[in-house]
Every structure is written in structure tokens, then in C-alpha cells.
Amino acid sequence: MIQSFTLPWSTVERTSPKISVSPDKLSNYDLILHCQDQSRPERALFAEVVRRYQSHVDKLLYHLAPDWQDRSDLAQEVWIRVYKNVKKLNDPAKFKGWLSRIATNLFYDELRKRKRVATPLSLDAPRQTGDGEMEWDLPSDNPSPSDDLATQEFYDKLRMAISDLPEAFRITIILREIEGMAYEDIAQITGVSLGTVKSRIARARLKLQTTLQPYLDQV
């Protein structure tokens, strides 16, 4: 699922190494802080940022667009934008959320360019919680043999249910349930009101639960 790529350093500014401590010894917070020290991050520092957060970007883009063959190109563009704009981040502690918004915005921009994507989103392993929220976890890479058939059947039904959701609902619920974004951030990304975001999420959850309930009652 995870796609690897090499950041094209020829497309970004090269800087001379000036750090006195190995980047892999820095905390996440200090790593981002050091990247903000100059107009552009030092190469070694930024390479460490990519190493730590690349899987996060790849997983997010996979869930948003599992059928897109050019996800690695989109991920590469994410990192180029991060490189050029990391100094604008006010709080290094919020880097992961900021990174997620860049990735999601790029996906959303690309989606607008395409008239329609057959199955742009994929959700894995939904679980009901006491308050009606749905949690989404990545499936194990090595499920037990006894789980294979039931798991695959459920995924097939889930993907069918998601594909029946209106495009706006699919995007909104993935941002909330998989990425855990705040309603306000989703509203900003999708360009709709906060009330519309909440309504779309509630209706998408209800639709998915209603569609999947007959199957869940049988297992």
C-alpha cells in the first residue's frame, strides 16, 4: 500500500549543512523547528522529515484515491509544497495536521480536475463505538486464515456502500473518520459551511450503517 519515492532535490533549493546534531536524534518538534531556522530547510533535516512522515502521507492518499495510479506523483508534490512553506507553520507541534491538510487540499484540487473518479475513497475495518462514531483501522497484513473470507466479504460490501455515497459525502467522511480532521478544517478544505460538513458526516454515517446493518446482523 505504501508507495516510496525520491524527492527531486533538483527542484528545490540546496543549502549547506549547518546542523550540529544528527537529524535522527531530534524530536519531531525540534526537527520541524530546525527546518524553520532558514528560508529553506537543510537537506539532511528535510530528508529526515520525509522519512518520518512519508508513510502518513502515503496512507492518507491511499485511502482518498486507492485506484489512482499517480498517487506517488501527488505525494511528491505534497513534499515539495511542505519544503517551500514549512517556515509559515506557526506551531511545529501541529505539523502532522498541517501536512495532512496540504495532502488533502492537493487531492481535492486534483479531484476537481477530474470529472469523476469511479471509487475515489476506501475505508477499512469500521467499528461501532458507544457514541455512534465509527473508527477506521488498517487491516492486518497477515490475517488469520479463518478471518480471510469474512473480512474480504465485509470489505467488498463496505466499498460498495461507499461507492453509492455522493462524492461530497465520501470525501467528507474520509477526512473525518480516517484522518480525524476537525470539522472546521474539513469545512475550509471542502469550501462549505460548518453546518454542511456536520450534516454530510451524519448522513454518510447513517447511510453506511443502514446499508451494512443487514450484513452485520448475520455475522
What does this structure look like?
The chain is mainly alpha-helical. The chain has two domains: 9-113, Rna Polymerase Sigma Factor, Chain: A, CATH 1.10.1740.10; 126-218, Orthogonal Bundle (Arc Repressor Mutant, subunit A), CATH 1.10.10.10. Helices cover 58% and strands 3% of the residues. It has eight helices and two strands. The chain has a two-stranded antiparallel sheet. The model is unreliable at 115-121 and 125-130 (pLDDT under 50).
Describe the secondary-structure layout.
Layout: H1 28-35, H2 43-64, H3 71-85, H4 95-113, E1 126-128, E2 134-136, H5 145-163, H6 167-177, H7 183-190, H8 194-218
Antiparallel strand pairs: 1-2
Helix pairs in contact: 1-2, 2-3, 2-4, 3-4, 5-8, 6-8, 7-8
Describe the structure using short key phrases.
two-stranded antiparallel sheet, 2 domains, 8 helices, 58% helix, Arc Repressor Mutant, subunit A, 219 residues, Rna Polymerase Sigma Factor, Chain: A, mainly alpha
